[in-house]
Specification:
Elements (H helix, E strand, L loop, with lengths): L2 H18 L4 E10 L6 H11 L9 E7 L1 E5 L5 E4 L15 E9 L2 E7 L22 E5 L3 E9 L1
Parallel strand pairs: 1-2
Antiparallel strand pairs: 1-8, 3-4, 3-7, 5-6
Helix pairs in contact: 1-2
C-alpha cells in the first residue's frame, strides 16, 4: 500500500504549512486525487486516520476531491477534459468512462486507468489525435497526481 508513504509525505507538508502560518492544530485537509493517480481515496483516508496521530493534524478531517483527466495537445495547446460523458469508446461506442481497476505500467508506478465498462477498452485507445490540429503529441497535465489543495487550521 503506497498510500501510507504518500500520507506520510502529506503529513510532513501539512506540518510545514502549519508551522509557516502559526497553526496550532489542523481541522481539515483537502487533497485532490487524480483519476490516474493509482490511489484509492478510501485507503488514503485509512492511512491518514492511522498516521495523523500525534501530529498537528491529529483531529483533522481529510476531504478528497477527484481531479478529472486533462488532455493537452503539445503542438497547438488545445485542451479537453475526459469526464464520464465527454467521450465515446472507439470500440463499442459507449459514452461512459469508469474505473475498471485495470493496471497500466508507467515507469515504476502502476496506475489505474479508465476503461469502457462494456468492452474494457483501456484509456490509451480513447486518446485519439488532437481534434484541432490532428497531432498525436498529447500530454496529460492533470488527473495523474495528488495535490494538497487546502489546509484549514486554528492559530
Amino acid at each position: 500500500m503506497h498510500e501510507f508513504s504518500i500520507v506520510s509525505d502529506l503529513l510532513a507538508r501539512i506540518e510545514q504549512v502549519a508551522a509557516e502560518n502559526g497553526g496550532r492544530s489542523v481541522s481539515r485537509v483537502v487533497v485532490g486525487v487524480g483519476r490516474l493517480a493509482g490511489i484509492s481515496p478510501s485507503t488514503l483516508e485509512q492511512a491518514f486516520h492511522h498516521l495523523k496521530l500525534h501530529t498537528v493534524a491529529e483531529s483533522a478531517e481529510l476531504v478528497t476531491e477527484i481531479e478529472e483527466i486533462l488532455l493537452r495537445c503539445e503542438d497547438c495547446r488545445a485542451e479537453r477534459r475526459l469526464s464520464d460523458t465527454s467521450v465515446c469508446c472507439p470500440r463499442c461506442g459507449s459514452a461512459v468512462l469508469r474505473d475498471q481497476g485495470h493496471s497500466h505500467r508507467h515507469g515504476l508506478l502502476s496506475l489505474d486507468v479508465l476503461a469502457c465498462p462494456h468492452c474494457g477498452e483501456a484509456l490509451e485507445g480513447w486518446i485519439g489525435p488532437c481534434p484541432q490540429c490532428n497531432s498525436r503529441n498529447i500530454s496529460v497535465p492533470e488527473g495523474r497526481g495528488i495535490l494538497l489543495n487546502r489546509v484549514e487550521m486554528e492559530r
